[in-house]
Design goal:
heterodimer; A: 111 residues; globular; B: 512 residues; alpha+beta; seven-stranded antiparallel sheet; 7 strands
Amino acid sequence: MLSAFFGGLVLAYAGMVGLCQGLERHYKQVWQRLPAPVLRRGLRLAGWASLAASFAASVAAWGWAMGPVGWFGLISLAGFALVMLLPYAPRLSLLLVPAGAFAWGLAWLIA
Amino acid sequence: MKKQTLTQAMAWLHTWSGLLFGWPLFAIFLTGSLAVFDQEIDHWMQPEVQRQDVPVALAAEHAVAYLQRHHADAGAWNIALPSERDPGLRVTAGDRRRGISTDLDPRTGEPLKVREAAGGSFFFHFHYTLNLPRQIGIWVVGLVALVTLATLVSGIIIHKKLFKEFFTFRPNKGQRSWLDFHNASGVLLMPFHLMIVYTGLVIFGLIYLPAALHALYDGDFEAFYQEAIGEAPHHHGPSRAPLATLVALGPLLAQAEERMGPLSAVSISHPGRSDALVEVRRVLGNRIALSKGHNMVFDGVSGKLLAGPPELRPSVLTQRVMFGLHFAQFGGYPMRWLYFFCGLVGSAMIASGLVLFTVKRRRKYLVEGRAGDFGHRLIEGLNVAVIAGLTLACIGLFWINRVLPVELAQRAGWELRLFFALWALTLLHGWWRPHLQAWREQLGLAALLCLGLPLLSALTVDHPWDDRTRLLLEATSVICGALLAWTTWRIGRRAEQPAPRRHKASAALEVN
């Protein structure tokens, strides 16, 4: 359950990063240039896909009744954390996605 | 009055209901977030209780032996069993809430000397009564919740760029930053805010709208619960039945555990009589619906199962799911942490709204030379006392718990008196000091108290850091302390150098 929970958390954060970077304003905020339209659409799509995967992970962690409740909590808090971090440490806020995925994979391998 | 647009009308509603009801709402949110961990805080506040790995059946056996020795003639016994969240074993003779309670060592069954403490239960009660008399408090909190729903909806209506600024937070821009923060915390956590306020109202729905209950049950709550939920039968008053030996609890507990999962408590009414009943309660939390009151009841002499956990009718199930969503007893610790953080962000959202009210007016009042106006000063002072002051008083309660002498009479009462005295002092302090200094000093002190909590434990408790619940609580406190210290530092920086001129700041940030 804990593994699915942390997986859901990482995916929720990744999803929010995707949606956020799919917006011109925030892409520019990190990279100082505009994203190509294809990239922008790809980021948004990946963001939605990641949020959907996070939903699946929440259901795996808690079941069909509690899963959606937990999922709303996860995406809300993940989004809020991203918004707070983005202006202070733009690159770091994106780096958290691979770092989180790596840590989760490592924990999964060890456990 | 001139005709207003919808947005203007909603902005007016949001501003004033947000201000007047924001103060009690902040207190409700902050104490509610702490109440998510009520049993953990209870456990922290009674450091004499140790976590021990004792089978539930053995602990129950010790409890019964103790009660038979000391309270054989009591009309009822209650045994709170050691559980993951609260590892203490506590027996009560007489009424479950008002009887005589004793803490026992679950390994030996010997009584423990445990300090009286206000505990996390205080935050829980404060959360829904604001420490007013219960009925009045429930009505006041209900009114706040109702207005909050309207404030949330009006907040969505007046938000001009809800999707465009979904991820936007621009720090160091004064009023702009406060509004950004207020919007981000409000919008991103909107599902939580709506859910928690709505379900909070539903919990006391029968108190707020009692007409149906009066019409159908003559206002008799108990009759309603018996019929609607199938609450298990229980005794009232003393027994006149002949003496009989109490059934061994071990097999009953095993049977109950198999059916309901981990157990939290056993109540025995008329122990030692032929009409004894044994009621076994479970740890809440294997489903969303709050399963409080859905227990198994056994005959206290033969051990026969009299009533199992009831199946819920759809209407009752709906109500219980609403309760459950609010109480967050489901989904284990991960869910508890989600609720805790959502609650804290919600508190910060309310606080930023309250601050925004004064930030917006401060500049205008400075220009007009009205900054010293009574009304403005009152609002600034109340903001400090409610936001920084209550935060300080809450962490203060943890310190009071460790510092007050253990053997003091009426100790729990003194803890609370000092808690409220501290809070009252912050009001005076917030009134006398210039407002930025008042913010800094109160938040700074709260930060110090949070950061120092593990140290305080080390100085005042025998085995300070070997209990995982207490250790985690202190680690959380240190993290909160770091956040508070950072906030204090930011306010300090702002106080020393006046905010940069608007065009300079916006030029610097417009690059992004």
